[in-house]
Amino acid sequence: MYLRWLIFYLASVGSASAAGNCSYKALIEHLGLGNNDDIQMTSLRPVFKWKTPTFVYTDLFVTSITEVDEKAQSLSTQITIVHGWFSEFTKWDPDDFCGIKFCPIKKDMVWTPDIIITESIKTEFATKDNQYVQLLNHGAIVTSNTFAVTTACKMNLHQFPFDIQSCTLTFQSPIHSIEELIISPFSGASFLTLSSKKAFQTQGEWEFLSINMSKANVSTLGVLQDQLIYKITMKRRPLLYVINFLMPVFYFLILDLASFFIDSSGGEKLGFKITLLLAISVLLLLLQDMLPSTSSDIPLIGVYCVVIFTLIGISVLETILVNFLMAKGNQTAAVRPTESSSALSDAVKDTKGPPDSVTDRHEEQLYALDVLKQILMEFQAAATHQNQQERKSLSWTRVATIIDVIFYFLYVTTVIVFLITLFKAWFLR
Question: Which one, 73, 208, 384, 417, has the greatest CB density within 10 A?
Answer without folding.
Answer: 208
